[in-house]
Amino acid sequence: MKIVIIGGTGLIGSKLAPLLASRGHEVLQASPSRGVNAVTGEGLQPALVGADIVVDVSNSPSFEDKAVLAFFETGTRNLIAAAKQAGVRHCIALSVVGSDRLEGSGYLRAKLAQERLIENSGLAYTILRATQFFEFIGAIAETGRKDGAVHVSSQLMQPLLSDEVAIALADVTLGEPANGIREVAGPEAAPLADFVGRWLRKQGDASKIVAGAEVPYFGAPLALRTLVPNDGARIMPTRFDDWLGRVAGGA
């Protein structure tokens, strides 16, 4: 089968492509750097000629509320139109656990808008919602630095390794369309502040951690279980501390 990955040269796309190719499929890693831009439409229709499956793992270059909404709405509308014209039989999108629970986050509002466009497209589809990636815990810590301390939410999260996101996504891609939402997460739910603390200690960073339920997560306060999956999620095996041991001081 021919499989087109939108955002195919990014973190997940670059891991997904070899997994699909190793199973005997023709894979096109589509991205603006390779002349395919879903937002502008450049190169999109030619890329999808003969495609059986399209997987959207693209991400906005800006997380500003209006910009990220425009990115996902415009790109998804263009992709749906091109997929219909090409006769694509399965459309897959990678989304985020909590996209339907965190209206205060402009990014997650945009991801939810993307999901709804796909759900209402008339295409056979699967949406895979993933929890936060291990590789982004450091960035979460940095966004919380203020007055010599790291301020971070005490609510739960259940992160996973990006390689295992790609594995789950490959399985979804080659499976039958769910025409619904699936979820994938790591094996351990713990306070976000706990993951950040373990990350900082691994870096030799003794910064004080100020944890609280009211501390916002990328601008929005969390409920206890906003960032953890529902029952029935696929749970991947790699634990955070095992990953930390392998990266040995840097992701």
Automatic annotation (TrEMBL):
<dbReference type="InterPro" id="IPR051164">
    <property type="entry name" value="NmrA-like_oxidored"/>
</dbReference>
<feature type="domain" description="NAD(P)-binding">
    <location>
        <begin position="7"/>
        <end position="133"/>
    </location>
</feature>
<dbReference type="Pfam" id="PF13460">
    <property type="entry name" value="NAD_binding_10"/>
</dbReference>
<dbReference type="InterPro" id="IPR036291">
    <property type="entry name" value="NAD(P)-bd_dom_sf"/>
</dbReference>
<keyword id="KW-0521">NADP</keyword>
<protein>
    <submittedName>
        <fullName>NAD(P)H-binding protein</fullName>
    </submittedName>
</protein>
<dbReference type="InterPro" id="IPR016040">
    <property type="entry name" value="NAD(P)-bd_dom"/>
</dbReference>
